[in-house]
Amino acid sequence: MENIKKIFLSMQITIAIIIIILFFIMVGLLFFVTPPKDNLQIIHILIGGLIGSFTTIIAYYFSSSSGSKDKDKIIENFINNKKE
After folding, report:
1. Is there a contact between 54 and 20 (Cβ–Cβ < 8 Å)?
2. Minimal CA–CA distance to 40: which of 49, 31, 30?
3. For every one of its 84 residues, what pLDDT tens digit does the chain have, with 9 covering 90 and above?
4. Residue 18 burial class via C-beta count within 10 angstroms: exposed 0-12, middle 13-18, buried 19 and up
5. Exposed e or buried b per residue across 56-81, where buried means at least 16 C-beta atoms within 10 angstroms of its C-beta
6. Can you give the residue range of the structural domain that contains 34?
């Protein structure tokens, strides 16, 4: 079970890193490449989705969600130690 948790955590981090990299690549490309006018709406939708994902990732890893997850681990360890 612990192995599955580690694999899941590493997958979460990998997906978060990929989304962050894609976000910066898309924003960087907007500065250096002029998109075709026909595809402009699709590009705006893509960037809007990436901004939402980027914001969610930052909020999770740097706000109370991360602290709440750590708190849950501490409580779980305390309960498991008390049973023994």
Report:
1. yes
2. 30
3. 677 777 777 888 888 888 889 888 988 888 898 888 898 899 889 889 988 988 888 888 777 666 676 777 777 777 777 665
4. exposed
5. ebeeeeeeeeeeeeeeeeeeeeeeee
6. 2-83
